[in-house]
Every structure is written in structure tokens, then in C-alpha cells.
Design a protein that fits this description.
The chain is built from three helices and no strands. The protein has about 90 residues and is an all-alpha fold. The longest helix is centred in the N-terminal third of the chain and has 28 residues, at about 5-30. It is flat, with a radius of gyration of 18 Å.
């Protein structure tokens, strides 16, 4: 097996593992009972993905896009927080 083949096998393994985790997470979120205080799980999944982007994949070149994403989700998160704190 060449170094290239080893690298491809490693990437394949990591991608399969990540996809499995995402599928597991999505199924867990979808199976949660609906909470009258919270909105759709799809929107929360998008907020979670944004959080992961900021925490793990952030780069200076994405700063403007990331900032716009944060601004667009802020009203939703604040409204959800108010519902929970009531």
C-alpha cells in the first residue's frame, strides 16, 4: 500500500466517522419530543452548525460571512431564550 493509499484510507475512515456522528446527532434531535417553548429542531441544527463553524473551522477570510450568519441567527436565539426563561 502506498502512502497515498494510506492517506486516502485515513480520510475515508474520518469522513465515514463524521457522517455517522452527524446522522446519529440528527436522529437524536429529530426524535426529541416537541417542546412548546422551542421552535423547530431544523433551525436549532443550523445554529449548532454555526457554533461548530465558529469553534472549529473559523478563518479570517470567512469573518464577514460568519458575522452575517451570527447577526441573522441572533434574533431567533434571543427569542428562544426568552421563551425558555419565562
Amino acid at each position: 500500500m502506498t502512502k497515498y493509499d494510506e492517506l486516502l484510507a485515513l480520510f475515508k475512515s474520518e469522513i465515514e466517522s463524521t457522517l455517522g456522528y452527524l446522522e446519529y446527532s440528527h436522529q437524536k434531535i429529530q426524535s426529541l419530543p416537541s417542546d412548546p417553548h422551542l421552535s423547530s429542531s431544523d433551525k436549532w441544527m443550523q445554529v449548532r452548525e454555526l457554533r461548530n463553524k465558529i469553534a472549529h473551522e473559523y478563518s479570517r477570510s470567512d469573518l464577514k460571512i460568519t458575522f452575517e450568519d451570527v447577526k441573522s441567527y441572533t434574533p431567533f436565539v434571543l427569542a428562544e431564550l426568552k421563551k425558555v426563561l419565562r
